[in-house]
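Q: How do we represent a protein-ligand complex in a form that can be generated token by token?
A: Start from the inputs.
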Amino acid sequence: MKDTYILGIESSCDETSCSIVKNGREEITTSTSTQISIHENFGGVVPEIASREHVKNITFVIEDCLKKANMKIEEVDAIAVTYGPGLIGSLLVGLEAAKTLSFVYNKPLIPVHHIAGHIYANSLVEEFKFPLIALVVSGGHTELIKMNDHLSFEKLGGTLDDAIGECYDKVARVIGLSYPGGPKLDKLAHTGEATYQLPMPLNDDSYNFSFSGLKSAVINLAHKEKQNNREINQQDLACSFQNVAIGSIINKTKKALKNENINNLIVAGGVAANGKLREEVAKLAEEMNINYSIPPLSFCTDNAAMIAAAGYYLYKKGIRADFNLNAQSSVNL
Ligand code: KG4
Ligand code: ZN
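Then emit the structure tokens for the protein with KG4 bound:
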């Protein structure tokens, strides 16, 4: 059978990325330009600056990707692009680039939902076995999704307030870590002990999550210690927070796998890079005797390989977009 090459473009937040993926499973090459060092100065992503940086970088990452792959655009079968959710100005840059390539080279345009992309990062690791549960943990999402087949997404539960990554970044700021705090907090937590008492969020029978109460508990604790002229122990607070946050994610994931009687788990999104989560998912899989996959770190945070991978399955299903495709800041999977 003829191989299918998809060129993917991702620009929903602060990474400008282009990738070529073969048959939805094999990354040929990916070129990513990250804006972290720019937004670090502001303590978070500044949307207007992000859009401008994407404009500066988009042509470079596309050219660089093709050059590294030693391919011409003529050789790819379709152009896949993230249309949402994300920052409107950022999304539009990738979208316009994809539309232009699609028009000039007469290639089908494939619309990819950012979270479908995160989920399909796992397709670059191993073939999906259905039914499966996808645990999506990122800066904007915390969801448990059941899939009976490719591109069939049934949401079992999600966060009622903050996303887990958002909570990590806010707690990291309270502890005194710079943006993006998630990975730094993760590292620090491994050097500490869980000496601070924090409440386990939403310990109920649902598949939902809640992280705003946990975030407030950390903020209140830090204020109290300050008022009493006591220094907080950064490592121990990081460890205490991480144990509860990841504990909550694992509890609900276990519940969903058990109740739905599912033996396959995939983990996706930026927070899938978390060391503690990776350890606990491995333990859970062993305890429940189930299959699991977590992408390598480079495919956990935003990248275009995952968009090209999801794009392949959409392409095979006959999904196409026309040039009216617009960016959407918030859109259901
Ligand atoms: O998926 P992603 O790159 O962007 C979104 O689609 O949201 O996720 C970014 C989020 C940020 O909140 C970042 O702090 C968090 O993922 N993150 C981590 C780790 N690495 C990235 N959070 C905890 N531990 C990590 N190791
Ligand atoms: Zn993402």
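The two ends are 31 Å apart (CA to CA). Strands lie at 5-10, 15-22, 26-34, 78-84, 109-113, 132-137, 142-147, 154-158, 264-268, 291-293.
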